[in-house]
Each structure stands twice: as C-alpha cells, then as structure tokens.
C-alpha cells in the first residue's frame, strides 16, 4: 500500500448553493480521508469551487453584481457548508485564485506549442445548462436529458484540443485498469462510448465571453470552463503549470464524482494529463444520485432536502451517518424525511445511543473498573476491506451487526438482575470492549460521537454521560 493518499471531489459549479448531492460526495471523501489518516498514511484532501463560464456571467448580470462578487458569495457558502459538516479538507481551491489562473495559462501555452491546441471552428449543438457540446445521440426527444432544454445551434471560431489524438492510448489504459473506473458498470459505459462513438476534438475556448481565463496567446478568447476547471486537481497541490512537473501527492489515489460528469473526466481530463506528460489518476469512483420518494429532486417540485436542514434536525454526526448509509455507494438511493427519521431512531437513538447509555449506566452504578484498550483485529480487517472497496454501507452494516449482537447479549444475560460483581464484570467487559472497538471504527462517519464514546469507554471509571442521540 502506498504511503500517500490523495483524494478529490469535483470543484463544484457556483451556479447554485450547496445541495445534498455536493454534500454526499464531500462527506464520502471526508470519510475516506479520515480512515486513511487513521491507517497512518499521508493524506491530502482537496475540494473547492469552479467559478468561470457563460452561466456565471449571466447569473451575475441578472443579479446586477460583478461576477467576482457573485462567486465570492457562493464560494463562501460552500466553505461554510463543509465546516458545518466537519469536513477535514486540506485545501479549498477556487478557479478564480490568481495562482490557478497563471498555471492554467502556462499549461495551455505548452499544449498549444506542442500542437495539441489549434485554431478551428465549432459548429454543433451546445447546452447552456451543461456548458457542454452535445451530439444528437445525447439528446432525448431533441432535449438535453439533464436540463430538459433544446440545445442551441452554435457556430464560432475557437481553439480546439486534439482529443482524438489520445483515443487509442486512453482506451487501452482504461481497459487495463491503468485508469481504474469504478463501479464496473461505469467502466463498461465509458469503454462502450469510446468504441461506438470515439473521441472528437473539443473546443477549448469561447470567444464572446469575458468571465474566464484569457487564452494567453489570443486575448479575444477565454478558456472553455472545463479545460480551466480540471487543472484544479493539480493546482490545488501547488502545481505551477509546468508540463511534466509532478506535485508530490500526484497522482490522485481516488477522484470522487457523480455520474453526470463521468464522461468528461474519462475523456478530456486524462487526455490533458497525457498532453502535459503527467500520470493519470489511479481511480475514478462514480456514485449515484438521490431521489426523493422515487422522484428527482427539484425546486419546482419543492422536494429538495437542504444539507443545512439535515444538520438542524439531526445534528452533524447523525446527518453524516444518514447520508452515508442511505444507499450502496456507487448506486442511486431513495431518500425522504420519513426514511431519515426512521433510520435515525432505529440506528442511532434506539441503537447505538441506547446501548452506550445502558452499558455505561450499569458499569457506573456498580463501580466496575474495566481497563479497556482499543483492539479487535479481525473486525478492523473486515471493516478496512469494505472501506478500500468503497462499500461504506457494508462497513456500517458490519459495525451495526456487532452492536446488535451486544444488545442481544444484554437481553439474554440480564445484567441488571445480577448481584455478584465478578459475574457482572464477566458479562459487561466483552460488551464494553465491543462498544469501544466499534466506536473507534465509527469515527470516520461520526467523528464527534465516535471520539466521545472512545473517551468514555477508555476512562478508568466509565460514566453514563449525556444522551448521544436524543429521540426525535
């Protein structure tokens, strides 16, 4: 196992405030980063915001403010949201950072001088919502499937990137898992796209937009938003834009994202890295979407669950747990306030919280001294196996089975009826040990509560303490 671990979320587009999809990716990245730190690896965790492009220019115009003021406000909302969710990112990159812009220009100049970027023309369909060009095959009934809008026919002079040049090399690397795409069905989807449609050269600049990174050799153009945004994964590590210059933490161990941006991350992004003589990320992992009671979340339907509302209702640790246990990671999940309430009460209030309170109360009441130490090698190995495979729901199920078994033993042995102290200690010691071992492994998901239980059950005298999860 490598001694370093570099994990990224996408840079989130500032056309809107943080939503539950952003939160899902970020909490998942945080869970992995925390676990890798616990294993003693050197970890770097990057998140941030993507702030250029036509959509942002328009949004700021609508609001009658400068684009920079608008992006500052939204970037700040993302920063605050991640603080609220106890996210331990090592850097928060903004694509409007001066160092990022300078590096992007340097990298583009290298690719241009190499012959990978050339002046051409783009004619085709452009979806303003995606800020992406579309082929007829991408559309459903003539509309963009994500934005339900017909793309505009566009024709403009632009600088193109020779994506087609890297088609064969990239396909071979993906097939051999040199660029691993997970889950397997997402890899198959990408391979099928390469083989059936192939890679066409893509536009890397726009002409009639001001809000973007200026093309260094032609100030009439600004960098197309994707070309600028992808390089954050390098500039966030302090990369200066020098081709072949590899930051210490590069390549990324895993890049997390949702499926709507898989295709560009499996084509344009690795091709740019090859053009810049840099290694590809080790793994791209794609998670699913959340639906609410089977319906797509949308403001017009009024069924949006805001991350801040989750924290308000359940508290930070519980909100993290509910998001991460809502679906098998990599697949779509169906959520609702009712489901969250049910899971909160079953798993946290009546499950973990109740068990900890009952056991601690019995130990304190009978003045038992247990001297517990974190252990459980077999449990750690099983848990680690699930975590390395990104099976967060399975890792949590493993811990909850342990807790349920401890609960069953309590019910079978009825220690509250036992008067002999030695016998009582024999019953409670293994249960308390299981609670301690489980709480330690819960820390990536429930950082505050996990730490609290570890401190409580490592103390010389275990005391009951405050309820961990008040019933709703």
Q: Top keywords for this entry?
A:
472 residues, four-stranded antiparallel beta sheet, six-stranded parallel beta sheet, single chain
Mean pLDDT: 94
Structural class: alpha/beta
Give the neighbour order of strands across the main sheet. 3-2-1-11-12-7
How far is it from the N-terminal to the C-terminal residue, by CA?
Answer: 43 Å
Q: Could you give the count of β-strands?
A: 15
Sheet of most strands: 6 strands, parallel
Provide the low-confidence segments as ranges: none
Helix content: 40-55%
Instruction: Quote the beta fraction.
Output: 15-25%
Rg to the nearest angstrom? 25 Å
Q: Which overall shape is indicated by the principal axes computed on the Cα atoms?
A: elongated
**Tally of separate helices:** 17
Walkthrough of the structure:
With 472 residues, the protein is an alpha/beta fold. Helix content is 47%, strand content 16%. It contains 17 helices and 15 strands. The chain has helices at 20-38, 54-62, 67-84, 98-113, 167-175, 184-196, 225-230, 232-235, 262-266, 268-275, 307-314, 316-324, 337-365, 377-388, 392-413, 421-442, 447-458, and strands spanning 4-13, 42-50, 91-94, 117-127, 132-134, 152-161, 180-182, 202-203, 205-206, 222-223, 254-258, 283-287, 290-292, 295-296, 333-335. It has a six-stranded parallel sheet with strand order 3-2-1-11-12-7. It is elongated. It starts with a strand and ends in a 14-residue tail after the last helix. The mean pLDDT is 94.
């Amino acid at each position: 196992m490598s001694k370093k671990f570099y994990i990224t979320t996408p840079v989130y587009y500032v056309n809107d405030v943080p939503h539950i999809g952003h939160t899902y990716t970020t909490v998942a990245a945080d869970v992995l980063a925390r676990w890798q730190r616990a294993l003693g690896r050197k970890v770097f965790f990057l998140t941030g915001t993507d702030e250029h492009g036509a959509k942002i220019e328009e949004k700021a115009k609508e609001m009658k403010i400068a684009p920079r003021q608008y992006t500052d406000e939204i970037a700040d909302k993302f920063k605050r949201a991640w603080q609220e969710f106890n996210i331990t990112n090592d850097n928060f990159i903004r694509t409007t950072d001066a160092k990022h812009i300078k590096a992007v220009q340097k990298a583009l100049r290298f690719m241009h001088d190499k012959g990978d970027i050339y002046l051409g023309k783009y004619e085709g369909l452009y979806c303003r919502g995606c800020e992406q060009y579309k082929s007829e095959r991408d559309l459903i009934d003539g509309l963009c499937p994500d934005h339900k809008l017909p793309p505009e026919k566009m024709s403009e002079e632009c600088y193109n990137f020779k994506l087609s040049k890297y088609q064969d090399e990239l396909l071979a690397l993906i097939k051999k898992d040199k660029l691993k795409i997970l889950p397997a069905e997402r890899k198959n989807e990408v391979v099928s796209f390469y083989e059936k449609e192939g890679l066409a050269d893509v536009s890397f600049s726009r002409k009639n937009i001001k809000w973007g990174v200026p093309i260094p050799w032609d100030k009439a153009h600004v960098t197309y938003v994707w070309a600028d945004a992808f390089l954050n994964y390098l500039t966030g590590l302090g990369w200066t834009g020098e081709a072949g210059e590899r930051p210490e933490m590069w390549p990324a161990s895993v890049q997390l994202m949702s499926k709507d941006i898989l295709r560009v991350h499996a084509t344009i992004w690795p091709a740019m890295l090859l053009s810049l003589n840099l290694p590809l990320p080790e793994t791209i992992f794609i998670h699913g979407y959340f639906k609410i009671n089977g319906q797509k979340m949308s403001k017009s339907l009024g069924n949006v669950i805001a991350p801040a509302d989750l924290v308000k209702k359940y508290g930070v640790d519980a909100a993290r747990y509910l998001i991460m246990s809502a679906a098998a990671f990599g697949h779509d999940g169906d959520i609702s306030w009712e489901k969250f309430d049910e899971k909160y009460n079953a798993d946290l209030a009546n499950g973990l919280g109740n068990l900890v309170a009952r056991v601690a109360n019995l130990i304190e009441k009978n003045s038992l001294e247990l001297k517990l130490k974190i252990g459980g090698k077999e449990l750690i190995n099983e848990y680690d196996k699930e975590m390395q495979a990104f099976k967060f729901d399975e890792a949590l199920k493993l811990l909850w089975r342990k807790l349920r078994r401890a609960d069953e033993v309590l019910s079978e042995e009825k220690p509250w009826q036992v008067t002999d102290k030695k016998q009582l200690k024999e019953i409670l010691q293994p249960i308390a040990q299981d609670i301690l071992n489980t709480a330690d492994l819960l820390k990536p998901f429930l950082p505050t509560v996990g730490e609290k239980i570890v401190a409580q059950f490592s103390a010389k005298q275990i005391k009951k303490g405050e309820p961990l999860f008040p019933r709703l």
